[in-house]
Specification:
This protein has two domains: about 140 residues, Response regulator (Rossmann fold, 3-Layer(aba) Sandwich); about 100 residues, Winged helix-like DNA-binding domain superfamily/Winged helix DNA-binding domain (Arc Repressor Mutant, subunit A, Orthogonal Bundle), CATH 1.10.10. It contains eight helices and 13 strands. The strands form three sheets. It has a five-stranded parallel sheet, sandwiched between helices. Strands 6-7-8-9 form a four-stranded antiparallel sheet. The longest helix is centred in the middle third of the chain and has 23 residues.
């Protein structure tokens, strides 16, 4: 088995940490004070905020009550194990990335770590440089996942996925035509802003196709029908101009 340099040789130069794109807040729970202090210094030298705890119960409270970009846990901790902390986080719906840093290197331990929801598992003794690279990789994946989640537009009971022509209404999936999807997405992106029929025609058909305003009215009528009598009211008609999205809508009423 490859051995790494002793922990006393940790380098704290930010030049050795690679490129973590933005400043992150990191929770480290480790009962070995020397490792905790050195790891904290190494991460802080890279410009990140680090919260540290030596006790599993304190780490548990922090993980479930505060917001972090990534958590690093030892497995064997006093009062509450790292495994228990991660299990509790996942049961509470937390998607915060987790890395286990532990001396437990048996295959069963590693498999258990991933089974409870860890994103990576590093065995002591470890290379500080390798650990930072692993943290960077986890953060990049997390940023991509967060960006995907942000692609979901939400307004009241509506959720609209940026990648799928489907509307989720109070937990029920409603398929939309491509035109209905584009109209609803544009309205949700700019809530309370009135969009003219001309703007919606350009959105759906482009500027070089001769399409009458009635085509937009038909799409909106069908979209309202799919949303239902109550929720269809969120798409309001603005007389003589176009449409807007409002959670206070009243039956697609006309507005002067």
């Amino acid at each position: 088995m490859q051995t790494h340099a002793p922990y006393s040789s940790f380098e704290s130069s930010s030049g050795e940490t690679g490129d973590i794109a933005t400043k992150t807040k990191i929770l480290v729970v480790e009962d070995d004070k020397n490792i905790l202090n050195l790891l904290s210094a190494y991460l802080e030298s890279a410009g990140h905020d680090v919260v540290v705890h030596q006790d599993g119960q304190a780490g548990y409270r922090a993980a479930l009550t505060d917001s972090f970009d990534i958590c690093i846990f030892d497995v064997m901790l006093p009062h509450r194990s790292g495994t228990e902390i991660v299990e509790a986080m996942r049961k509470h719906g937390s998607v915060t990335p987790v890395l286990f840093l532990t001396a437990l290197g048996a295959e069963t331990n590693v498999l258990q770590g991933f089974a409870v929801g860890a994103d990576d598992y590093v065995i002591k003794p470890f290379s500080p440089r390798e650990l930072i690279v692993r943290i960077q990789a986890i953060l990049r994946r997390s940023q991509i996942a967060n960006a995907c989640r942000k692609n979901v537009l939400e307004a009241g009971p509506l959720k609209l996925d940026a990648e799928q022509p489907t509307c989720n209404l109070s937990g029920q999936s409603i398929p939309l035509t491509p035109y209905e999807y584009k109209i609803l997405r544009r309205l949700l992106e700019q809530p309370s802003r009135v969009l003219s029929r001309g703007q919606l025609i350009a959105l759906l058909y482009g500027n070089d196709v001769a399409v009458g305003p009635k085509a937009i009215d038909v799409h909106v009528h069908n979209l309202r029908a799919k949303l239902g009598d109550e929720n269809g009211t969120m798409i309001e008609t603005v007389r003589g101009f176009g449409y807007r999205f409002s959670l206070a809508g009243e039956g697609g009423r006309r507005i002067s």
